[in-house]
Write a structure and sequence with these properties.
- By secondary structure, the chain is α/β, with parallel strands linked by helices.
- It is built from 15 helices and 17 strands.
- It has one domain: Glycosidases (TIM Barrel, Alpha-Beta Barrel), CATH 3.20.20.80.
- Helices cover about 45% and strands about 15% of the residues.
- A hairpin with a 2-residue loop joins strand 5 and strand 6.
- About 45% of the residues are buried.
- This is Family 1 glycosylhydrolase.
- Pfam families: Glyco_hydro_1.
Length: about 425
């Protein structure tokens, strides 16, 4: 599955007074037809995309579907498969932020309403990058609640992951063969000295918390104590163990040059640049969760030489082939995103209007060298990879097949399996 994305981040900054809307900043609201045409022309069959949550979800059980209706109808007509991103780093003003304990249950109803309105959609990322969102909002003080504490981080994390799990449940009731591609940042923390080994070990345990909870995996004793010491209750923890939906998931790994960190003895961190790389870190995540893998995000600025992003594309592709040849069932690769982004260089925590040249196209929709390289890569590899894969096919229903008899049979079988899973005794 070769993919790109339309960035729909909407965090707030300045104490919640300023909304950072990347669809607005990058011109997607005005040029969405052009953007989808570019995806089609590139030969990209899968698009990470979702409605802007703050414009769509107006209140509990009140929605404005106009933009979603227009855009998803166009994607369906083009036979582009959306991987629907329902919550990307922000919530509507009326919810507040990720410290709100009502958010998971409210989000359940939002996901249910979306799935009911668009029953032909099969692939979802209900909540994007839960670890990153909780870290930036609850620990770094950058987004949304702008807290700087372990308690703020754990509170945001448990609400984000519970919202994701409840959304999966809601979607499966309406689309029993739904597949969830959980886009999550793949991280690693390197100790810079013997005195830094301990804090680095803690961070390397914490990096797994979002997926451990999401997939119903028991955390180790130290992380269990950490969660309980910072606001998670035993009942909240057991919710995740008892609502295990891992069997419906593909693990999405995001990797950027900023994903590896150098840890000092006092626990402070700085970017280390690429040391292990995507292949080694993805192998660690796959060894832990044993799921099919999709490379769901990467990019790099075009750079002063004009070739840096192309070189990064080929490096990421080589890393993906490496883990695939070693037996990890890799099913997809993504350059994120379709166009350049605004203020990614400050992680959207400042509103500077800086254009970051890291898209397949610039903001005038002119193709960049990396776009040309990605189109060539897709053309060369698209028909070769399925015959070599340990995971030969992902049972994806294309939009133009949504009404046929095969799809009906698949969803009927999936519904029966889901019912059997629900009726089975808890382990």
């Amino acid at each position: 599955m070769f993919a790109t994305g339309i960035e729909n981040s909407v965090p707030t900054i300045n104490g919640g007074r300023t909304r950072i809307d990347e669809m607005e900043s990058c011109g997607h609201y005005r040029r969405w037809r052009d953007d989808f045409a570019l995806v089609q022309d590139m030969g990209i069959g899968y698009l990470r995309f979702g409605p802007p949550i703050h414009k769509t979800w107006l209140a509990a059980d009140r929605y404005d579907w106009e933009f979603a209706d227009l855009t998803f109808a166009d994607l369906k007509q083009r036979n582009i498969v959306p991987i629907v991103d329902l919550c990307h780093c922000g919530v509507p003003d009326w919810i507040g932020n990720f410290q709100n304990p009502d958010f998971p249950e409210l989000f359940f109803h939002y996901a249910a309403a979306f799935a009911a309105r668009f029953p032909w959609i099969q692939l979802y990322t209900p909540v994007n990058e839960m670890y990153v969102c909780a870290t930036f909002s609850g620990r770094y003080g950058w987004w949304n609640e702008q807290l700087r504490s372990d308690h703020g981080f754990v509170t945001a994390l448990k609400h984000l992951v519970k919202a994701n799990v409840l959304a999966m449940q809601a979607i499966l009731k309406r689309r029993p063969d739904a597949i969830f591609i959980q886009s999550e940042s793949s991280e690693y923390f390197h100790a810079e000295s013997p005195a830094a080994i301990r804090p680095a070990e803690l961070m390397n345990s914490q990096r797994f918390l979002s997926l451990d909870l999401n997939y119903g995996r028991r955390v180790d004793s130290e992380m269990y104590e950490y969660l309980l010491d910072n606001g998670m209750t035993r009942d909240e923890y057991h919710f995740f163990l008892h609502n295990r939906l891992k069997q419906h998931c593909i693990m999405g790994n995001d990797y950027y040059v900023t994903n590896e960190h150098r840890v000092a003895a006092d626990g402070s961190t700085q970017a280390s640049g690429e040391i292990f790389g995507y292949s080694e870190i993805t192998r660690q995540y796959h060894d832990r969760y044993r799921l099919p893998v999709m490379h769901t995000e990467t990019n790099l600025n075009q750079g002063p030489l004009g070739t840096e992003s192309v070189d990064w594309l080929w490096k990421q592709w080589a890393n993906l082939l490496r883990v695939r040849n070693d037996g990890v069932p890799v099913v997809g690769f993504t350059w994120y995103s379709l166009t350049d982004q605004i203020d990614w260089d400050t992680a959207l925590r400042e509103q500077n209007g800086h254009v970051n040249p890291l898209g397949l196209f610039d903001l005038d929709r002119n193709i960049r060298p990396v776009g040309t390289a990605f189109k060539k890569l897709i053309g060369q590899w698209r028909d070769v990879l399925p015959t070599q894969s340990l995971c030969l096919t992902v049972p994806v229903v294309m939009p133009d097949e949504a009404e046929d008899i095969h799809t009906h049979r698949q969803t009927t079988r999936a519904r029966a399996v889901n019912t059997a899973e629900q009726d089975a005794p808890a382990k």
